[in-house]
Amino acid sequence: MKNLDILLIDDDELSNIYTVIKIKEFTQVPEVSICYNGEQALEYIKSKMSSGAALPDYIFLDIHMPIMNGLEFLEEYQYVEKKSKIIMLSTSILEEERAIALKYDFVVDFINKPLKVELMKEIFSRSTVQK
């Protein structure tokens, strides 16, 4: 697997530690960038774009966060010219939230925490041939 650039957007420190371990275990990426809310993530993305840097290949996005939640982030992110593939990673079991997230064509999957390596293999293989 090529060296991926991955961004994790989640306000839960403990969950982030676990998720980063699992991402690194599967992808062998040296580092995962972390933002703690949607607003911080949009600033991170704008900064990368203004410097000419590539956007992350994948974004793992939680829904329930302070300041700007995941669904609000998606609403703003749709206006970004180049898109990363977004994987929703949440404890939410609400079908309404799932449906809202999946209406965006750049959202390639919606999975429940905790992230499992077996699921990652399936997600990455599916998302490289779709969307």
Automatic annotation (TrEMBL):
<dbReference type="GO" id="GO:0000160">
    <property type="term" value="P:phosphorelay signal transduction system"/>
</dbReference>
<protein>
    <submittedName>
        <fullName>Response regulator</fullName>
    </submittedName>
</protein>
<dbReference type="InterPro" id="IPR001789">
    <property type="entry name" value="Sig_transdc_resp-reg_receiver"/>
</dbReference>
<feature type="domain" description="Response regulatory">
    <location>
        <begin position="5"/>
        <end position="128"/>
    </location>
</feature>
<dbReference type="InterPro" id="IPR052893">
    <property type="entry name" value="TCS_response_regulator"/>
</dbReference>
<dbReference type="Pfam" id="PF00072">
    <property type="entry name" value="Response_reg"/>
</dbReference>
<dbReference type="InterPro" id="IPR011006">
    <property type="entry name" value="CheY-like_superfamily"/>
</dbReference>
<keyword id="KW-0597">Phosphoprotein</keyword>
<feature type="modified residue" description="4-aspartylphosphate">
    <location>
        <position position="62"/>
    </location>
</feature>
